[in-house]
Design brief:
The chain is α/β, with parallel strands linked by helices. It is about 35% helix and about 20% strand. A hairpin with a 2-residue loop joins strand 2 (about 45-50) and strand 3 (about 50-55). Bound molecules: guanosine-5'-diphosphate (2 copies).
């Protein structure tokens, strides 16, 4: 589990380390007897109101008296902006507003991260109104404190803790893959889930005498935990007679956002419908992997070519299906339902793939060399460099002199080129342009 980071920044001598020690001092009073807690002067675990976090004194991180103060303070702020979840700007209420406070405040503001403004050395709280002039920094309410005596530091910590990222925003269990089974009513979603888990599974909760439907059902498979999200919703759907279409639309909206991979079911006796495509696009646009299961295959009259022809016809109709793996299965007989799980693992592996920056640029240079972007109002549009910035789904940023002038068809060309190079079967990919000169 990674703890959020709170960084303290500000000019020298405003009282950063005094404040830092006060914050960790409170913690020490509680956990002093815990062995193995490493602590150093500049970086320490802390807690307040039940929330745990790290606090960093950037003034202690960057110490180099050879450089001008202005540079030092800016560098501190840069480190803090890069590393921290919440930024605390400490100022000196005795001395009043300083031009350097303005500069740092501007940097912090433009970082977009939450900032708390502390006005320290307010030893005569609450009588002294000196902190009011710090409203001018545009960082919201100035919090008057006296780090020396501790006055006001509780309120300051309350505010800091309020701004910490939600505890449930912590990283997921890496062994877990969240799977949503989606598709129109009656295509066989509940049958598939029941087949995978065994019919009529009921979970008995800890309280004696109560039984309830589990919201999600988990299955261990090849070292991964497959969590089938909202399996209770599938049961509910079976009971809802009217408004089934609407119900399934709302359910899909919700579950695709919560899923890593969607198992999209269609009815093999009916072929793919407009609504099927809409559901699949919902999942794709939400960044989930997609595996298409053509269900009820037991009912389809077929020869050795039927499956291939069907895939070909679907892909001609809907280009993005080129990137979606297709499986023919029967939830009724159990034919190939386990294979669907293998395909989920593979789609998630593709979704987690990282391409080296050098490979990205090799492919990009080749594509741009073969077909450069069209000029925009007489100006050449250049694409200089690209890199993968995240996974799940794989997301690329390409740097251009005129990022807003790259036309949609050219983006499609790059997208198709990336697909030719790396395929990414079963996962959407994203490509963004950013400005660089
Ligand atoms: P930093 O260099 O910005 O980390 O600041 P320090 O924590 O070293 O504090 C600088 C000076 O301000 C020290 O002499 C502290 O004792 C003093 N100081 C810190 N907090 C307060 C306070 O709340 N009131 C007063 N009067 N002095 C303080
Ligand atoms: P859901 O609404 O998508 O959850 O669909 P259900 O799982 O409730 O299935 C709807 C109907 O199709 C039920 O009568 C199932 O028995 C039937 N069904 C589901 N899968 C198959 C299959 O692979 N083959 C056949 N023949 N029938 C199926």
């Amino acid at each position: 589990m990674t703890l959020p980071v709170v960084a303290v920044v500000g000019r020298p001598n405003v009282g950063k380390s005094t404040l830092f020690n006060r914050v960790i001092g409170r913690r020490l009073a509680i956990v002093d007897d815990q062995p193995g807690v490493t602590r150093d002067r500049n970086f320490s675990p802390a807690d307040w109101a039940g929330r745990h976090f790290y606090i960093v004194d950037t003034g202690g991180v960057i110490e180099d008296s050879d450089r001008p103060m202005d540079r030092l303070v800016r560098e501190q702020a840069e480190v803090a902006i890069r590393e921290a979840d919440v930024l605390v700007l400490v100022t000196d209420g005795k001395e009043g507003l300083h031009p350097l406070d303005q500069k740092v405040a501007e940097m912090l503001r433009s970082s977009g991260k939450p900032v708390v403004l502390a006005v320290n050395k307010m030893d005569n709280l609450p009588r002294d109104p000196a902190h009011h002039e710090f409203w001018e920094l545009g960082l919201g309410e100035p919090h008057a404190v006296s780090a020396g005596s501790g006055k006001g530091s509780g309120d300051l910590l309350d505010r800091i803790v309020e701004l910490l990222p939600a505890a449930d925003a912590l990283p997921d269990d890496p062994t877990q893959i969240r799977v949503a089974v989606v598709g129109k009513p009656n295509v066989g979603k509940s049958s598939l889930v029941n087949r995978l888990f065994g019919e009529e599974r009921v979970v008995v909760s800890d309280e004696a005498g109560t039984t309830r439907d589990p919201v999600d059902s988990t299955m261990a498979y090849h070292g991964r935990n497959l969590v089938f999200v909202d399996t209770a919703g599938l049961r509910r759907q079976a009971k809802v007679k009217e408004d089934l279409e609407y119900y399934s639309y709302v359910r899909t909206e919700r579950v695709v956002r919560d899923a890593d991979v969607c198992l999209m079911l269609i009815d093999g006796t009916q072929g793919i419908s407009h609504q099927d495509l809409r559901i699949m696009e919902q999942a794709w646009e939400a960044g989930a992997g997609v595996v298409l299961v053509v269900n009820k295959w037991d009912l389809v009259e077929k020869d050795g070519f039927t499956a291939d022809l069907m895939v070909k016809a679907m892909r001609e109709r809907t280009p993005f299906l080129q990137w979606v793996p297709v499986l023919f299965a029967s939830a009724l007989t159990g034919q190939r339902v386990r294979k669907a799980l293998d395909m989920v693992l593979e789609a998630e592996a593709q979704r987690q793939r990282r391409i080296d920056t050098s490979d990205v640029n090799d492919v990009l240079q080749r594509l741009v060399g073969r077909q450069p972007p069209p000029h925009s109002r007489g100006r050449p549009v250049k694409i200089r460099y690209g890199t993968q910035v995240r996974v799940a789904p794989p997301t690329f940023v390409l740097f251009s002199n005129l990022p807003r002038e790259v036309p949609a068809h050219y983006l499609r060309y790059i997208h198709n080129g990336f697909r030719d190079a790396w395929e990414f079967t079963g996962t959407p990919i994203r490509i963004f342009f950013r400005e660089s000169n």
